[in-house]
Amino acid sequence: MQKAPHTPAETAATEFDPNADRLREECGVFGIFNHPDAAAITALGLHALQHRGQEAAGIVSFDGSRFHSERRLGLVGDAFAKREVIDRLPGTSAIGHVRYSTTGETILRNVQPLFAELNAGGFAIGHNGNLTNGIKLRRDLVREGAMMQSTTDTEVILHLVARSQRNQFVDRFIEGLRQLEGAYAFVGLTNKKLVGARDPLGIRPLVIGKLDGCPILASETCALDIIGATYVRDVENGEVVIFDEDGFQSHKPFPPMAARPCIFEYIYFARPDSIVGGRPVYEVRKAMGAQLAMESPAAADVIVPVPDSGVPAALGFAQESGIPFELGIIRNHYVGRTFIQPTQAIRDQGVRMKHSANRAVVEGKRIVLVDDSIVRGTTSRKIVQMMRDAGAKEVHFRISSPPIKHPDFYGIDTPDADKLLAATHDLESMRQFIGADSLAFLSVDGIYRAMGEPGRDPAKPKYTDHCFTGDYPTPLTDQGMQDPSQKQLSLLAEAI
Amino acid sequence: MQKAPHTPAETAATEFDPNADRLREECGVFGIFNHPDAAAITALGLHALQHRGQEAAGIVSFDGSRFHSERRLGLVGDAFAKREVIDRLPGTSAIGHVRYSTTGETILRNVQPLFAELNAGGFAIGHNGNLTNGIKLRRDLVREGAMMQSTTDTEVILHLVARSQRNQFVDRFIEGLRQLEGAYAFVGLTNKKLVGARDPLGIRPLVIGKLDGCPILASETCALDIIGATYVRDVENGEVVIFDEDGFQSHKPFPPMAARPCIFEYIYFARPDSIVGGRPVYEVRKAMGAQLAMESPAAADVIVPVPDSGVPAALGFAQESGIPFELGIIRNHYVGRTFIQPTQAIRDQGVRMKHSANRAVVEGKRIVLVDDSIVRGTTSRKIVQMMRDAGAKEVHFRISSPPIKHPDFYGIDTPDADKLLAATHDLESMRQFIGADSLAFLSVDGIYRAMGEPGRDPAKPKYTDHCFTGDYPTPLTDQGMQDPSQKQLSLLAEAI
Amino acid sequence: MQKAPHTPAETAATEFDPNADRLREECGVFGIFNHPDAAAITALGLHALQHRGQEAAGIVSFDGSRFHSERRLGLVGDAFAKREVIDRLPGTSAIGHVRYSTTGETILRNVQPLFAELNAGGFAIGHNGNLTNGIKLRRDLVREGAMMQSTTDTEVILHLVARSQRNQFVDRFIEGLRQLEGAYAFVGLTNKKLVGARDPLGIRPLVIGKLDGCPILASETCALDIIGATYVRDVENGEVVIFDEDGFQSHKPFPPMAARPCIFEYIYFARPDSIVGGRPVYEVRKAMGAQLAMESPAAADVIVPVPDSGVPAALGFAQESGIPFELGIIRNHYVGRTFIQPTQAIRDQGVRMKHSANRAVVEGKRIVLVDDSIVRGTTSRKIVQMMRDAGAKEVHFRISSPPIKHPDFYGIDTPDADKLLAATHDLESMRQFIGADSLAFLSVDGIYRAMGEPGRDPAKPKYTDHCFTGDYPTPLTDQGMQDPSQKQLSLLAEAI
Amino acid sequence: MQKAPHTPAETAATEFDPNADRLREECGVFGIFNHPDAAAITALGLHALQHRGQEAAGIVSFDGSRFHSERRLGLVGDAFAKREVIDRLPGTSAIGHVRYSTTGETILRNVQPLFAELNAGGFAIGHNGNLTNGIKLRRDLVREGAMMQSTTDTEVILHLVARSQRNQFVDRFIEGLRQLEGAYAFVGLTNKKLVGARDPLGIRPLVIGKLDGCPILASETCALDIIGATYVRDVENGEVVIFDEDGFQSHKPFPPMAARPCIFEYIYFARPDSIVGGRPVYEVRKAMGAQLAMESPAAADVIVPVPDSGVPAALGFAQESGIPFELGIIRNHYVGRTFIQPTQAIRDQGVRMKHSANRAVVEGKRIVLVDDSIVRGTTSRKIVQMMRDAGAKEVHFRISSPPIKHPDFYGIDTPDADKLLAATHDLESMRQFIGADSLAFLSVDGIYRAMGEPGRDPAKPKYTDHCFTGDYPTPLTDQGMQDPSQKQLSLLAEAI
C-alpha cells in the first residue's frame, strides 16, 4: 500500500500517544475458501490482525454468483462484529483486509479489498506491502486510458490483470505480478479461486492454515489461533498459491532467490504470540532484551518496560541481568480520542493521558527503561521526564533494536529521514535529547544473534534491515522520479 | 441513467403514496462556470430540480488544481445546505446532479457526477436520460480491460473519452458521444471547461442561463429562477456546448434532425413554473385540462384536483366547464416514512396518510376528479374510494393525458408493460377497476392541440410520445439482447 | 405550554420561510384507551396533528403494569413511524403530544407527555395551551421543596396532583385544575384511566372520538379521520372527561361560563379538513375570503393565493368576485434546512427557496394576493416584491382576518407587541411597508359574520379574539410580576 | 448507586470477557472549585477514573449564574474529549461522575450528576456507593408528593435537601445525610460551594487534592496525577468538607467511629498507581501475591498472570517464589463488541477473542496462574482450558484474595449469592469446576497481613470485608422489606 503523507494532525497526536512514536505496519490480510461461515471467520481473523492496521477494514465474499463487499473506516470490532453486516456477506469464500490508521487519504474508496469486474468474472484483492514502482505503473496505465478508482498502489495489479490478454486467470495474475517491484503479500478471490502471493524476497509475511479442512491465508499465525485453525506452512518468497475446487497449486514464477523477510515483524509488528518464519515472536523479543543486557548492562534497582511492546524485551533484560522487573508505568486501558488539554502544563505532560508513572516503583530508584525502538524520540523524552517527575534517581534507556536511520518503502510508515532521531543525531546527542542518564541500542549484529545467527553477513543478509543499514533489497523506481508533481496520485479530493 | 429493477419495497410504498403511481423522471443536472460561489449556487440549482430526482445528489467542483466531490444519498437540502459541505467544494466551477429515488442499486458508487482521471486531467460528468445501447457498450469495454466503478450507463461515456486517442478534449468527448444511442442531457466539467450535450433528438431538456455574466447549464428554467439567473436559450438537439476561459463554442457533431422532446416533461415532470422549449408548463397543463373538458365533459357540482400535480389541469377544466374548482382532497405536508399500519382497515385506507378527503366539499356532490396520468391505477382506485367514503354522490375521473400503453427506455422509470393499466385493460374495464362513474383520457391529438398543434402528424411527430403511441424514436439495442444474463451489470453487491 | 424566547436564529429563518410570518400553535394532543394498537394509532393521530407542532413528539403507553415513554425531537414521521419504536410502547392505552418548533428551550426534558410517579401509581400528561399563572405556581412549588424536571408549565399540574391529599385520582386532578389559570386542553393517562380536560372557556380545542368501540381524545377531527375513527362530540369548556374500565364519566368542576374558543383555530391553526366546534374549517375560511371580497373588492385580472394557507380564502374571494383563481406562486415541496445563501442578491430573495413566482400567470396582470394574516409583515413584503419582479402590473393585498395588534398568552407563539406590524403601523404605513398598491384586512365584525354571527357583541364576544381586540378573557397573573428575574424558569442549561 | 438487575445479556457477555467475572465498582466522582478550566480538568479526572465506571459519564458546571449539564452514555473519552462538549460547560466549578456499565436501567435520566433546583439555588450531586435504606426513603418521599426523576438512590438526597426547612445549605445537606444508611462518597456543587461527604465508616474512598491552588475532590489519587495536581489528604470517614469563596470548612456531623474502608479497593477496584488510605495499591497487591506464595506455594516452571489485574500479584508471587514470571496469556488490545461466533467450537473458546495463549511460554510447562479473585468461576475455567490447549503440563491456580461468599450492598455489583462459586462449592469442588491441578486462595488473615496487620481482629476489623466474612458493617434496611414489589423503583420504562 502507498504511504500517505504525514500531516500536522499526526504530529499532534504524537505528543500524547507513546505508541505514536513507533513505526506502523500498514496492513494485514486474511482469506478462507469453501467454509460455510467464510465472512464471520474472516471477521475474526481480521480482529486478530487488528494491530497491523486500525484505519479501516473490509471483507469481500463470493456466494457462487455475486461478490459482496463491505468496507468501513474504523476497527473490525466496530463494523464487522454485527450480524447484520456479516449477513450481507453471504458465500463460502471470503477475503479481508485491515489498514493502518493514518490521516490524509483516509477515504472509503481506498479501503480494501478492491474489486474489479474482469471480462471472465470478478476479482477482489487485498494487499500488505508497498510497490516501489506503483506510481510509475499507475502513470502508464492512465496514459493508456485506464480509469483509477482509488489512490492505492494495490489498484495497479487489478488493471494489469484486467488488461492481460492471457486466457487463464493464473496466467493473467502472474503476468501482472511480473511487472511489480517492491514488497507484497496478496490475498485474492475470484469466482473460482482463493489466491495468495508473496514477493520474490518474502518481505511481508503470509501463512497458510487450515480449519475444518478448508484452506486459509493470513498475515500471521495469531489469526489462525483465534479461530482454532491449524498452521500448515508459510507461503514461500516468490510463491503464488491457488486454492480451488480442484485442490491446491503452487507456482514459482520468479527466478529463485534467498528470502529476506522484514526484521521489523520480529521487533515490533507481529503479535508476540505469533510464530513468524518458524520463530515465536515472544521468545525472539526476550532474546533481543537478553542480548541487549549483555551488550549494554546498567547498574540499576529495577527494570521498567515501556508498555506494552517493550514488555518481552524488558523481561529478557531482567532475567539476563537479575534485576527485578516491575510495572513502573501503568497503561490506561480507556484511551479514546485526544482530550482537550486545558493548560500548557498538562499539554507538556501529554503522555499521561495514556500512561502514568507508578510512583511506588520508581521513587528513589535507579531504573532501566526498556523499549523496542526509537523513531522520532519525542515520546521517549516525555517518558524519561515522567520517570524523573515520579522520583527516579537514575534513568537508563535501553532499546532492543539498532538505531533507525533510513526510511522504509515496503509498507512501513516511517517518517522522512530528517524526522528520524538516529538519522540526525549521534548517540550522545540522542541521550541528551531524551534526557536519560545513559542510552544504548542493540547492535545490528546483536539483533542477528538474537535471531540465532552469528551476526549479519553483509554479502548475504538474511533479513530486510535497510532501516538500520541503508541496504535496500529492491530497486526504488518511484523514488527516482525527477518531477515531484508526477507523484500526485489523484486530481480528486473526496471525503467518502 | 440505467433503470433499477422494481422491488417489493417499491410496490409496498405504492399503497400509501398517490404520487407513487406517477411516472418518475430519473435525473436533473446543473453546472456553472467561473463564479466565485460555484458550489453554493449549484446546490440551490439542484434544490430547484429536486422534483427530478430524490434518491441522491452530488456536486463536483474544480478549484484550479484539484477536483472536489461530495455525493450523498438523500435530498439536496439534507446534504448540501450546510456550510461545511459547501466549504469542501472550493473552486469557481461546479456541476451537480440529482437522481431519482428507487430501491435496488441505490448505492453511493452510482451517485453522480461520476469522475475520471484522464491522462490530460480530470473529467466529471452528470447525466439525465438513458442510453439504449449502454449495456452493449459496457460489455465491449469490459472485454477490452476497462474496470467499471459503477452500474450506471453514465460511466460508459467516461471510459470512451478516456480511451479515445484524439488529442483535444472536445474531440475525445464527441468521439464518445457518437457511439451512444438513446436520450441524454450531459453536463461535464474538466480542468478547463464546462460542457453540455443533448442527444440528436433533444429528448431530455437542457437550458443555458447566465448569472453575473457566468454561464449556467440546467435541466429546467426553475433552476435559473431560484438564483435570479436569466434564461439565455435551450441547448439544441444534437448540440455540444463548451464554456471556457476563451468564451463559448457550439458543436453540431450529428446529422441535422428535427427535435422530438419528451412530451412527459409537459404532462408531469417539469415544474409548473418552468418554461420548456419556449412554453410555460403551467399554461400547457391548463390547456390540457381545458381540452379534456371539451373532449369529455361531465355534469357535476365541483371539480376536484388530485393534488398536487393535477391542479393546473383541474383549473383548466373548471374554467372551461364553468364548474367550481374546490380542494376536495387535502394534502398532509408532513409526510415522512411509511408508518406502521396497525389494522387492516387502516392499511386499506393507506392513501389517507398523505391525503385526506375534505368532507365539507365532497359530501352529497357530483365530483370530477382531475389527474394528469394513470400508470398502474392502484392509487386512482383508492382516491375514488376515499371520495365515496366522504359522501360523493358521483365520481367522474378525467385524465389530462392519453393512456400509457408502452414502457419508456429514455430515462423515465415506467413499470413493465404488464403492470401498466392501459396496456392490459380497455377503457370500460379501467373504469371498473378504478370504481369511477365515468372515466375519460385526453386523446393523443388532444394533447398535440394543447401544445398548439393541429394534431399529431404520424409522419413527423413533434414529440417523443411512444408511451402513448409505441413509436420509439431511436433503436433499442440493449432490448434486443438474446441472453438476459448479459444484462447483469455487475457481479458486485455493495451497500456503500 | 410556556412560550420560549425569540432568538436570532428564529429571526434569520423568517427571511426565507413565508410560513415563518404566521402565528404558531404550540401543541396537539391525542389519547386512546383500551385498544390493542394504542401506540401505533397514537402515532398516526399525532401525524395528522403535526401542523400543530413540529419541534418534538412523544408517546406514553401503559401495558397493565408499567408505563413506557418515547420522546423525540423532530417530526412524528421521523421518530414514530418505525416498528422498533412502536414496539417499545406496548399496552392498550396511550397518549401523545406534538410540540411546536421553536429554538431556545428545545430540549428533551421538555418534550411531553411528562410523567410522574404518584404514590398511587403513574400519571402521564400532555398539554395544549398556556397557563397564565404557571410561573407563579412553579415558584410556590419550588419554595415548598418540589423538584422541577422541566421548564414547561405543564409540569406544574403534575406536582399539584402529586401533592394533593385527596384519595381519589379524579379529586386530586380537579384540585390541581382549580389552581390553574389560562388555556389548556389536557390528555392524561393513569394506570386505570384516560382523562381529558378543557379550560373553563374552552380556548383550546379537544374532541372525543371512537374507533372499534374504544374512546379517543384529540385536538382536531383530522386525527380521527386518518384512522377511520368516528367523531362523537367536542369536550365542553370546563369539562373533565374520564374513560376507564367502568365506562365514561363527565365532571364539571367549574362554575358554568359561556364558551369562548380561540378564533385563530378557524383562521389558521386547524387543518382545513377538520370540523372545529361543529363548523368545517375549509368552509369558514372560504366564507372569510368571500366576506373580504365584499368588504374590500379590487379591480384585478387574477386572484393569487399565498400558499398554502391562503388558498381557501382566495377561492372564496375568487368565487365571490368572479375573478379567476390562478396559482401565481408555486411552492417547492422539497424544503429542508436553510441553504447557505451565496450572494446578497440571493439572500434578498430568500423567499424563493420555498416559493417561486409563476411568471406565466403574473406577468402584465393586476393581481389580488390573498393571505390569512400578517404578523411582522416581512414575508408579505418579499412576496409582493417577488410578484413585481415577475411582472405583475398591480398588486392588491387582501388579508382574510383583522390586524393583529396584541400578543397572545394562551398557547400561540406571537412576537412581542413591538414586532407586530399592525401594533405599530396604521393601514397606509403597512401598505407602504409591504409595497402593495392597496391593502385591506377583514373587519372584526366581518370575521364574526363569516362565522354566522351578525357581528361581534362586545358584551358577550363568542370567541377569544384578544389579538385583534385586546380583550383578554382571563387574568394574566404572570404578566403582572414586578421582578423580571422571577420569570427565569431554570438555573440549568442542558442540551438533552 | 442502586444496583441494576442481572440480565441474560450480561451473562452472555461473561463467556467472552475474562474481566466479566470480576466484581465491579459502580462509580467514580470528581470535583474542582474555582479553576478557569473546570470542565476540561473534570473530564481528564473522570478519564483517569474510567475503570470505576464505563456505562455513562456526566459533568455539571456552574458559570456564576447558570448550571450546565452534559450527561452521556459511554466512555468519558467518547463524549467529553471534544471541545464542543467542554465549551457547553462554562464556569469555574464543576463536578463529574462515571458510572459502571450494566444492562437494565442504563438510561440517561439515571446518569449523574443529578441536579435539583432548590428554592435557594441549584444543587448538583454525584454519588459513589449505595444506600442500604434508599428504597425505603424513596417510598416515603413519593408518599409525601415528591416526583422522582430517576431510579437512582442518589436522587433521595436531593429531595431530602429540597424539603429541609433549614436555612443554610450546609445544614440542609447534613440533615439529609443523617437520614442515609450505607456507603457513600458524594461530591456536590451549589451556586457557591463544592462539597464532599464520606459515610461514617468511610467505606468508599474520597481524596482531597490541589491544582494551581484550587481544591479538588476525587475518588482516587490517579485522578490527581493525570492533571499534575498534588494530593492533600483523604476525606475522613464521616466527614463533610466544604470549599467556597471563604475557604475550607470541615464538619463531623456523626458520632466518632473507627474507619472501615472497603478491602476490595486494594484487591481489584483502585488503579494500581493510586495511593488509597496512604498505601500504594501496587505494593499491596504484590504483597498479597507474595503472602499467597508463602501460604500456598507450587512446584512450577513459570508464573503466568491473568491479565491485566492479576499482574502485580503474579509479580509478587514470582519474586517470593523465585519462579520466572512470563506473559503466557496475551491480551488483544482491540476489543470492541462481541463478535458473531460462527461455530460452536469457536463459541466454546470465547475467551480467545480478548486473550490468547502464548504457546511459546506455556507448552510443556508446569504453570502457576495468578488472578486476583474468582466470582462465578466461568472465566477461570476457560482460561485453564486455554492453557491446557496450549500444551501446559500442569496448571496451578492461585487467587490473591479469599473466597467470595457473600454479596455486597455498598456499591459493588456482585451476583446473587447462589451465583458466587465460593458460596456454593467447597475448595475441592471449585478446583474440579475450574479444572486446575491445584487451587488455593489467600486466607482472610493473609490479606490483613498483606495490609501490614498481624491478622484480622474480629472484634475490631479494620476493613469492610463482608464478602469474605459475612460481617456487614451497617444495617441493611431495604433487604428486610417483606414485599418484593415494594422494591420496584419506577413504573416508567424509558430508553432515553
TrEMBL record, chains A, B, C, D:
Annotated InterPro entries: GATase_2_dom (IPR017932), Ntn_hydrolases_N (IPR029055), PRTase-like (IPR029057), PRTase_dom (IPR000836), PurF (IPR005854), PurF_N (IPR035584)
Domain of life per record: Bacteria
Keywords: Glutamine amidotransferase, Glycosyltransferase, Magnesium, Metal-binding, Purine biosynthesis, Transferase
Pathway listed: Purine metabolism; IMP biosynthesis via de novo pathway; N(1)-(5-phospho-D-ribosyl)glycinamide from 5-phospho-alpha-D-ribose 1-diphosphate: step 1/2
Start and end residues of each Glutamine amidotransferase type-2 domain: 27-246
EC number(s) on file: 2.4.2.14
GO molecular function (one): magnesium ion binding
Active site: C27 (nucleophile)
Top-tier EC class: transferase
Coiled-coil spans in chain: none
Binding sites annotated in the UniProt record for Mg(2+): S309, D371, D372
Record text on cofactor binding: Binds 1 Mg(2+) ion per subunit.
One biological process term in Gene Ontology: 'de novo' IMP biosynthetic process
Catalytic activity line of the entry: 5-phospho-beta-D-ribosylamine + L-glutamate + diphosphate = 5-phospho-alpha-D-ribose 1-diphosphate + L-glutamine + H2O
Cofactor section: Mg(2+)
Stated role: Catalyzes the formation of phosphoribosylamine from phosphoribosylpyrophosphate (PRPP) and glutamine.
HAMAP family with a match to the protein in the record: PurF
Family: In the C-terminal section; belongs to the purine/pyrimidine phosphoribosyltransferase family.
Annotated protein name in UniProt: Amidophosphoribosyltransferase
Organism: Pseudolabrys taiwanensis
